[in-house]
Amino acid sequence: MPRRLPPLTTLPAFDAAARHLSFTKAAAELHVTHGAVSRAIRNLEEQLGSRLFERGTRSVQLTSVGAAYAAEIGAALDRIGAATIAATAPKSAGVLNVSTSDGFAGRWLVPRLHRFHRANRDIDVRLSTSGTFSDFIRDGIDIAIRYGAGGYEGVTSEFLAEEEVSPVCSPELLQGEYALRTPDDLRHHRLIHDNFRIDWATWLRAAGLDDINPSNGVRYESAAYAVEAAVQGEGVLLGRSALVSADLAAGRLVRPFDLTLKSRWNYYVVYPNGALRQRKVRTFRDWLFREMAAG
Protein backbone atom coordinates (compact mmCIF):
# COMPACT_ATOMS: atom_id res chain seq x y z
CA MET A 1 0.00 0.00 0.00
CA PRO A 2 1.47 3.40 -0.92
CA ARG A 3 2.33 5.71 1.93
CA ARG A 4 0.00 8.61 2.67
CA LEU A 5 2.42 11.54 2.70
CA PRO A 6 1.98 15.31 2.82
CA PRO A 7 3.70 17.56 0.25
CA LEU A 8 7.29 16.84 1.29
CA THR A 9 8.55 20.27 0.22
CA THR A 10 6.35 21.88 2.88
CA LEU A 11 7.89 20.00 5.80
CA PRO A 12 11.17 21.96 6.24
CA ALA A 13 9.16 25.21 6.44
CA PHE A 14 6.75 23.73 8.97
CA ASP A 15 9.57 22.24 11.07
CA ALA A 16 11.53 25.51 11.17
CA ALA A 17 8.43 27.59 11.96
CA ALA A 18 7.45 25.17 14.73
CA ARG A 19 10.91 25.33 16.32
CA HIS A 20 11.17 29.12 16.16
CA LEU A 21 7.46 29.93 16.54
CA SER A 22 8.17 32.53 13.90
CA PHE A 23 7.67 32.50 10.14
CA THR A 24 10.28 35.24 9.81
CA LYS A 25 12.99 33.27 11.65
CA ALA A 26 12.05 30.13 9.72
CA ALA A 27 12.48 32.04 6.45
CA ALA A 28 15.90 33.30 7.57
CA GLU A 29 17.03 29.78 8.48
CA LEU A 30 15.89 28.35 5.15
CA HIS A 31 17.05 31.35 3.10
CA VAL A 32 13.60 31.91 1.59
CA THR A 33 11.02 34.67 1.91
CA HIS A 34 8.45 35.02 4.67
CA GLY A 35 5.77 34.55 2.01
CA ALA A 36 7.28 31.25 0.87
CA VAL A 37 7.12 29.88 4.43
CA SER A 38 3.56 31.11 4.87
CA ARG A 39 2.43 29.53 1.59
CA ALA A 40 4.11 26.22 2.40
CA ILE A 41 2.38 25.99 5.77
CA ARG A 42 -0.98 27.02 4.33
CA ASN A 43 -0.60 24.31 1.68
CA LEU A 44 0.24 21.76 4.36
CA GLU A 45 -2.77 22.77 6.48
CA GLU A 46 -5.04 22.41 3.46
CA GLN A 47 -3.68 18.94 2.70
CA LEU A 48 -4.10 17.83 6.33
CA GLY A 49 -7.45 19.50 6.81
CA SER A 50 -6.24 20.83 10.16
CA ARG A 51 -4.95 24.16 11.40
CA LEU A 52 -1.36 23.85 12.64
CA PHE A 53 -0.75 27.40 13.89
CA GLU A 54 -2.77 30.07 15.68
CA ARG A 55 -1.69 33.26 13.95
CA GLY A 56 -1.51 36.45 16.03
CA THR A 57 -0.63 39.99 15.05
CA ARG A 58 3.08 39.57 15.79
CA SER A 59 3.46 35.93 16.74
CA VAL A 60 2.31 32.40 15.98
CA GLN A 61 1.57 29.51 18.32
CA LEU A 62 1.16 25.81 17.57
CA THR A 63 -2.28 24.33 17.93
CA SER A 64 -2.56 21.03 19.80
CA VAL A 65 -2.60 19.23 16.44
CA GLY A 66 0.37 21.31 15.26
CA ALA A 67 2.43 20.57 18.38
CA ALA A 68 1.89 16.80 18.07
CA TYR A 69 2.64 16.90 14.35
CA ALA A 70 5.77 19.01 14.87
CA ALA A 71 7.23 16.51 17.35
CA GLU A 72 6.84 13.65 14.85
CA ILE A 73 7.99 15.61 11.80
CA GLY A 74 11.04 16.98 13.64
CA ALA A 75 12.09 13.48 14.69
CA ALA A 76 11.53 12.18 11.16
CA LEU A 77 13.64 14.95 9.62
CA ASP A 78 16.41 14.21 12.15
CA ARG A 79 16.39 10.59 11.03
CA ILE A 80 16.47 11.62 7.37
CA GLY A 81 19.41 13.93 8.09
CA ALA A 82 21.32 11.17 9.89
CA ALA A 83 20.59 8.73 7.05
CA THR A 84 21.82 11.29 4.51
CA ILE A 85 25.07 11.73 6.41
CA ALA A 86 25.55 7.98 6.62
CA ALA A 87 24.79 7.54 2.91
CA THR A 88 27.26 10.19 1.80
CA ALA A 89 30.01 9.26 4.27
CA PRO A 90 31.75 6.69 2.01
CA LYS A 91 32.33 9.38 -0.63
CA SER A 92 34.36 11.49 1.78
CA ALA A 93 35.60 8.96 4.30
CA GLY A 94 39.00 10.64 4.60
CA VAL A 95 37.77 14.24 4.97
CA LEU A 96 36.37 15.61 8.23
CA ASN A 97 34.80 19.06 8.05
CA VAL A 98 35.01 20.86 11.41
CA SER A 99 33.39 24.19 12.30
CA THR A 100 34.54 26.41 15.17
CA SER A 101 35.50 30.01 15.96
CA ASP A 102 38.76 31.50 14.73
CA GLY A 103 39.90 32.08 18.31
CA PHE A 104 39.39 28.48 19.41
CA ALA A 105 40.89 27.21 16.16
CA GLY A 106 43.95 29.44 16.30
CA ARG A 107 44.81 29.23 20.01
CA TRP A 108 43.61 25.75 21.02
CA LEU A 109 42.76 23.41 18.15
CA VAL A 110 45.40 24.06 15.49
CA PRO A 111 48.40 23.83 17.90
CA ARG A 112 47.20 20.34 18.88
CA LEU A 113 45.93 19.13 15.53
CA HIS A 114 49.24 17.57 14.50
CA ARG A 115 48.71 14.97 17.21
CA PHE A 116 45.37 13.98 15.74
CA HIS A 117 46.81 13.71 12.23
CA ARG A 118 49.78 11.70 13.45
CA ALA A 119 47.45 9.15 15.07
CA ASN A 120 44.85 9.20 12.27
CA ARG A 121 46.68 9.52 8.97
CA ASP A 122 43.61 8.48 6.98
CA ILE A 123 41.52 11.47 8.19
CA ASP A 124 42.10 14.97 6.79
CA VAL A 125 40.61 17.76 8.91
CA ARG A 126 39.24 20.80 7.11
CA LEU A 127 38.46 23.77 9.34
CA SER A 128 35.68 26.31 8.85
CA THR A 129 36.00 29.35 11.11
CA SER A 130 32.95 31.35 10.15
CA GLY A 131 31.65 33.75 12.78
CA THR A 132 28.16 32.25 12.48
CA PHE A 133 26.82 28.79 13.28
CA SER A 134 27.16 26.51 10.27
CA ASP A 135 24.30 24.43 8.99
CA PHE A 136 25.53 20.84 9.16
CA ILE A 137 23.68 19.57 6.09
CA ARG A 138 23.81 22.66 3.87
CA ASP A 139 27.45 23.50 4.66
CA GLY A 140 28.69 19.90 4.76
CA ILE A 141 29.91 20.16 8.37
CA ASP A 142 30.55 16.90 10.22
CA ILE A 143 31.20 18.21 13.75
CA ALA A 144 31.50 21.59 15.47
CA ILE A 145 32.96 23.10 18.63
CA ARG A 146 30.60 25.84 19.73
CA TYR A 147 30.84 28.40 22.48
CA GLY A 148 27.49 29.14 24.05
CA ALA A 149 24.76 28.07 26.43
CA GLY A 150 24.29 24.55 25.01
CA GLY A 151 20.95 22.94 24.28
CA TYR A 152 21.21 23.37 20.51
CA GLU A 153 18.04 22.27 18.72
CA GLY A 154 17.93 19.36 16.31
CA VAL A 155 21.49 18.16 17.00
CA THR A 156 23.47 16.37 19.69
CA SER A 157 25.56 18.61 21.95
CA GLU A 158 28.00 17.51 24.64
CA PHE A 159 29.67 19.68 27.26
CA LEU A 160 33.39 19.95 26.49
CA ALA A 161 34.82 22.54 28.89
CA GLU A 162 33.89 25.50 31.03
CA GLU A 163 35.33 28.94 30.42
CA GLU A 164 37.11 31.12 32.99
CA VAL A 165 38.48 34.60 32.45
CA SER A 166 41.40 36.34 34.16
CA PRO A 167 43.98 38.98 33.22
CA VAL A 168 47.04 37.64 31.37
CA CYS A 169 50.13 39.39 30.08
CA SER A 170 53.68 38.88 28.92
CA PRO A 171 56.16 38.13 31.75
CA GLU A 172 57.91 41.37 30.71
CA LEU A 173 55.10 43.38 32.31
CA LEU A 174 55.96 41.95 35.74
CA GLN A 175 59.19 43.94 35.67
CA GLY A 176 60.22 47.56 35.30
CA GLU A 177 58.98 50.84 36.72
CA TYR A 178 55.29 49.94 36.43
CA ALA A 179 55.53 46.24 37.21
CA LEU A 180 52.17 44.54 37.58
CA ARG A 181 51.85 43.49 41.23
CA THR A 182 48.29 44.45 42.18
CA PRO A 183 45.16 45.16 40.08
CA ASP A 184 45.62 48.86 40.83
CA ASP A 185 48.78 48.78 38.66
CA LEU A 186 46.58 48.26 35.59
CA ARG A 187 46.17 52.05 35.39
CA HIS A 188 49.71 52.18 33.98
CA HIS A 189 49.11 49.63 31.22
CA ARG A 190 47.14 49.31 28.00
CA LEU A 191 44.10 47.06 28.22
CA ILE A 192 43.52 44.62 25.36
CA HIS A 193 39.93 43.92 24.37
CA ASP A 194 38.23 41.30 22.22
CA ASN A 195 34.53 40.71 21.58
CA PHE A 196 33.98 38.55 24.65
CA ARG A 197 30.93 38.73 26.88
CA ILE A 198 32.95 39.35 30.05
CA ASP A 199 34.68 42.67 29.44
CA TRP A 200 37.13 44.79 31.38
CA ALA A 201 34.33 46.80 32.98
CA THR A 202 32.97 43.59 34.53
CA TRP A 203 36.38 42.44 35.80
CA LEU A 204 37.40 45.85 37.19
CA ARG A 205 34.08 46.09 39.01
CA ALA A 206 34.65 42.63 40.54
CA ALA A 207 38.13 43.77 41.60
CA GLY A 208 36.68 46.84 43.32
CA LEU A 209 38.35 49.30 40.95
CA ASP A 210 36.09 52.12 39.80
CA ASP A 211 38.70 54.72 38.84
CA ILE A 212 40.30 52.90 35.87
CA ASN A 213 38.76 53.57 32.46
CA PRO A 214 37.56 50.15 31.20
CA SER A 215 37.52 51.33 27.57
CA ASN A 216 41.22 52.25 27.61
CA GLY A 217 43.41 50.32 25.21
CA VAL A 218 43.17 48.49 21.91
CA ARG A 219 40.37 46.25 20.58
CA TYR A 220 40.62 43.25 18.27
CA GLU A 221 37.71 41.58 16.48
CA SER A 222 39.62 38.30 16.54
CA ALA A 223 40.28 36.62 19.90
CA ALA A 224 43.35 34.94 18.37
CA TYR A 225 44.88 38.32 17.49
CA ALA A 226 44.10 39.66 20.96
CA VAL A 227 46.01 36.77 22.56
CA GLU A 228 48.96 37.30 20.24
CA ALA A 229 49.02 41.00 21.16
CA ALA A 230 49.28 40.03 24.84
CA VAL A 231 52.09 37.57 24.07
CA GLN A 232 53.99 40.38 22.34
CA GLY A 233 53.73 42.59 25.43
CA GLU A 234 51.25 45.05 23.95
CA GLY A 235 49.16 45.15 27.13
CA VAL A 236 46.99 43.12 29.48
CA LEU A 237 44.22 40.89 28.14
CA LEU A 238 41.27 39.26 29.84
CA GLY A 239 42.38 35.78 28.86
CA ARG A 240 39.82 33.07 28.15
CA SER A 241 41.07 29.85 29.75
CA ALA A 242 40.84 27.62 26.69
CA LEU A 243 42.49 30.18 24.43
CA VAL A 244 45.47 31.01 26.66
CA SER A 245 46.20 27.60 28.23
CA ALA A 246 49.03 26.72 25.82
CA ASP A 247 50.67 30.15 26.18
CA LEU A 248 50.44 29.95 29.98
CA ALA A 249 51.95 26.46 29.99
CA ALA A 250 54.81 27.62 27.74
CA GLY A 251 55.47 30.73 29.83
CA ARG A 252 54.62 33.13 27.00
CA LEU A 253 51.83 34.51 29.21
CA VAL A 254 51.37 34.75 32.98
CA ARG A 255 48.46 35.53 35.28
CA PRO A 256 49.52 38.54 37.37
CA PHE A 257 46.45 38.38 39.66
CA ASP A 258 44.33 35.65 41.22
CA LEU A 259 40.86 37.04 40.51
CA THR A 260 39.12 34.77 37.98
CA LEU A 261 35.56 35.10 36.69
CA LYS A 262 33.47 32.20 35.43
CA SER A 263 31.61 32.65 32.17
CA ARG A 264 27.96 31.65 31.86
CA TRP A 265 28.85 30.17 28.46
CA ASN A 266 30.97 27.08 27.82
CA TYR A 267 32.37 24.96 25.00
CA TYR A 268 30.27 22.19 23.48
CA VAL A 269 30.94 19.49 20.90
CA VAL A 270 28.00 19.51 18.50
CA TYR A 271 27.13 17.12 15.69
CA PRO A 272 24.06 15.83 13.82
CA ASN A 273 22.08 13.09 15.51
CA GLY A 274 23.50 9.74 14.45
CA ALA A 275 26.80 11.21 13.21
CA LEU A 276 28.86 9.08 15.60
CA ARG A 277 28.08 6.11 13.39
CA GLN A 278 30.82 7.51 11.17
CA ARG A 279 34.26 6.48 12.40
CA LYS A 280 35.87 9.80 11.45
CA VAL A 281 33.38 11.81 13.53
CA ARG A 282 33.57 9.43 16.50
CA THR A 283 37.38 9.41 16.39
CA PHE A 284 37.65 13.20 16.32
CA ARG A 285 35.03 13.62 19.04
CA ASP A 286 36.86 11.21 21.36
CA TRP A 287 40.19 12.92 20.64
CA LEU A 288 38.74 16.34 21.53
CA PHE A 289 37.67 15.10 24.96
CA ARG A 290 41.07 13.48 25.60
CA GLU A 291 42.94 16.63 24.61
CA MET A 292 40.75 18.87 26.74
CA ALA A 293 41.14 16.56 29.75
CA ALA A 294 44.93 16.60 29.29
CA GLY A 295 44.91 20.41 29.62
What secondary-structure arrangement, pairings included, does this model have?
Elements: H1 11-20, H2 23-30, H3 34-48, E1 53-55, E2 60-62, H4 64-88, E3 95-99, H5 102-119, E4 124-128, H6 136-139, E5 143-148, E6 155-168, E7 191-193, H7 200-206, E8 218-219, H8 223-231, E9 236-240, H9 241-250, E10 261-272, H10 279-294
Parallel strand pairs: 3-4, 3-5, 7-8, 7-9
Antiparallel strand pairs: 1-2, 5-10, 6-9, 6-10
Helix pairs in contact: 1-2, 1-3, 1-4, 2-3, 5-8, 5-9
Molecular structure report:
α1 (11-20) crosses α4 and α2 (23-30) packs across α3 (34-48). The chain is elongated, with a radius of gyration of 24 Å. Strands 4-3-5-10-6-9-7-8 form an 8-stranded mixed β-sheet, with helices on both faces. It has a two-stranded antiparallel ribbon with strand order 1-2. It has helices spanning 11-20, 23-30, 34-48, 64-88, 102-119, 136-139, 200-206, 223-231, 241-250, 279-294, and strands at residues 53-55, 60-62, 95-99, 124-128, 143-148, 155-168, 191-193, 218-219, 236-240, 261-272. It has 3 domains: 8-83, Arc Repressor Mutant, subunit A, CATH 1.10.10.10; 89-162 and 266-294, 3-Layer(aba) Sandwich (D-Maltodextrin-Binding Protein, domain 2), CATH 3.40.190; 163-262, 3-Layer(aba) Sandwich (D-Maltodextrin-Binding Protein, domain 2), CATH 3.40.190. By secondary structure, the protein is α/β, with parallel strands linked by helices. It has 10 helices and 10 strands.
